[in-house]
Amino acid sequence: MENEHVPVLLNETLEALSVKPDGVYIDGTFGRGGHSAKILEQLGTDGRLIGIDRDAAAVACAQQRFGDDPRFQMFHKGFEALAEVAAEAGKTGKVDGILLDLGVSSPQLDEDERGFSFMRDGPLDMRMDQRESMTAADWLATASQEEIRDVLRRYGEERFAGRIATAIVTQRDEQPIVTTLQLAQLVEASVPRKEKGKHPATRTFQALRIKLNRELEQVESALQQSLEVLKPGGRLVVISFHSLEDRLVKRFMRYQSTADHLPKGLPVSSEGMHAPMRLVGKPVAPGEEEINRNPRARSSRLRVAERLAA
């Protein structure tokens, strides 16, 4: 597809990172290297870029594209290992910018065998890290009806979660649910009212993907670790694609940019206490031109915070 390797909010991301030629940067979600390539273009010989991705295909792409570049180092891990990676690279507290481009990548969606898309028939896999043993099909085969319902409500904000969970359990008693189209068709038949412009299975697939890959827990962990990894003046730049991610990012940045967190009743004054971060600008959404060029950018939001001196 034309938009397969198109990085979202590219110019806005580079501006937010404020790349310095001799700076140290971490691309926590390398994907196919669209953002990384542009960061490397702005780095000088003394600059450093560290890539992280838990998808083996992304790691292979990184080695092919930039493996010979002495300024680049790639780690086959999830971004919840942010502090560990920074320590291994000898850059704890020395990083000028962290980029997290959250969610599933376009190549993952476009590859039938990965099982992320309800528009393509393939095995119901959904593992971002294929070193993990449990697939979405495995989880649906063993989870209780109540667990399935709760996951669809929590991670998909699916109003018909109960109906869909009942249909899944009924179906699996007759025949295992092992392909993406099986699940998509089952969900479509279970939903009494359709959202305009949205496939009925959208929320279900999102919920299962988030659950299986522990996405929100990993986002929370990485955000917290950014405080340890960034140097004073370093930027945290996060691109999110749905409200659950964006809410986590917004709350974290707002909380860390406010100094008055001391619990009431403590014999300590909040005077002189400094917030560890400051907000930079307002949330950025893609323009009409980018959305027309890359429809998958439509729901993206970019938020930026800067690390302050302790």
UniProtKB/TrEMBL annotation:
Sites where the protein binds S-adenosyl-L-methionine: 33-35, 53, 79, 101, 108
A GO CC term assigned to this protein in UniProt: cytoplasm
EC number, as in UniProt: 2.1.1.199
Zinc-finger found in the keyword field: no
Source domain of life: Bacteria
Region Disordered: start-end pairs: 286-310
GO MF term list: rRNA (cytosine-N4-)-methyltransferase activity
Pfam families reported for this sequence: Methyltransf_5
SUPFAM superfamilies: Putative methyltransferase TM0872, insert domain, S-adenosyl-L-methionine-dependent methyltransferases
Swiss-Prot/TrEMBL keywords: Cytoplasm, Methyltransferase, rRNA processing, S-adenosyl-L-methionine, Transferase
InterPro entries linked to this entry: RsmH, SAM-dep_MeTrfase_MraW_recog, SAM-dependent_MTases_sf
Catalysis performed (reactions): cytidine(1402) in 16S rRNA + S-adenosyl-L-methionine = N(4)-methylcytidine(1402) in 16S rRNA + S-adenosyl-L-homocysteine + H(+)
Compartments (UniProt record): Cytoplasm
Single GO BP term: rRNA base methylation
Signal peptide range in chain numbering: none
Family assignment from sequence similarity: Belongs to the methyltransferase superfamily. RsmH family.
Main function: Specifically methylates the N4 position of cytidine in position 1402 (C1402) of 16S rRNA.
Protein name per the record: Ribosomal RNA small subunit methyltransferase H
Organism whose genome encodes this protein: Solemya velum gill symbiont
Phylogenetic classification of the source organism: Bacteria, Pseudomonadati, Pseudomonadota, Gammaproteobacteria, sulfur-oxidizing symbionts
